[in-house]
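Forwarding these from the shared drive since the link keeps breaking.
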Amino acid sequence: MEVTGKIVKILPIETGQKKDGSGEWKKQLFLVDNNESYNNIHCFEIFGEEKVDNFNKFNKLNDVVKVLFNISTNEWQGKYFTSLQSWRIEKAEMSNNISNQSNQSAANLNNNNEPDDLPF
């Protein structure tokens, strides 16, 4: 699944010990507003040291991004918790530029000054 919107809040990094005692885990939550009338705020989770570090290196508050994510639900002591686990974050302007370039290339192909002799 994917959502495009503006990063409106970045929460502090959370850390903890792995269950098997082999080290620490790291996660971070951030909120994206997609500017829709309803269900416009989404809280995404980034899990893993490398992913959290990359997120903080390349993203900041008010950036417009496209977030690709999975929905995950876990049970703990009879209660269920759902999270939106992001696995890729892209700058939205970059993807728009790519689609604009593709549209421009298609327009150039159509304006090749040759007669259009196709019956459809």
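-- next protein --
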Amino acid sequence: MNKIKTISFDLGGVLFTEGKKVAQDVLFRKYGYDKELILNVLKSTKSIELRKGLIEDKEFWLWVQNELPKNYDTKIIKKEWYEGYILDEDIFNLVKKLKNKYKLVVFSGNIKSRIEYLDRKYHFRQYFDAEIYSYDYHFNKLDKEFFEILIRKSGNKPNEIVHIDNSEKIVSLAKELGIKVLIYQTGNIKELEKGLSNLGVKW
């Protein structure tokens, strides 16, 4: 078994809670916004374009305003969406323990303004050696090319990389390229640590 040299982390659902679901619930509870309408815009094709850096924030939120009832406030929706990403202390503590022992990489389909917001709030970026965001490369995690960028940026062989994600969708693609994948569900830190330990990762 090849020694693991690079560990990459997804953000939403791993280092942070999945913000869409949190925002959906908060917007319904506090403002009476329809959950289905909110989820539809946050998972829309336009949202994917935003994540890929193909459109700017302003264009996306103008589009959202036109898609939703006129009494829905996009500033509130954006605020609750970003605030819905809450730091997972278990994962953050693991990252701190792994720092300087392995090459740590952020590998995320994300939005530039949200990354900036989260770093101002949690100062997480300082713990990573490299960051690979969909908006910088115009790919997302269902694109083979995005994982090929991870391999290049790691400077290691694919089988020396383990990626931690919350989505089963990416497993077959990553494994096809030789990258190991561990699936994390919030609260299951012991299971994740066991998976890392089985791959020879020490902290």
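Residues 6-17+86-198 form a domain with the Rossmann fold fold (CATH 3.40.50.1000). The mean pLDDT is 96.

- D.
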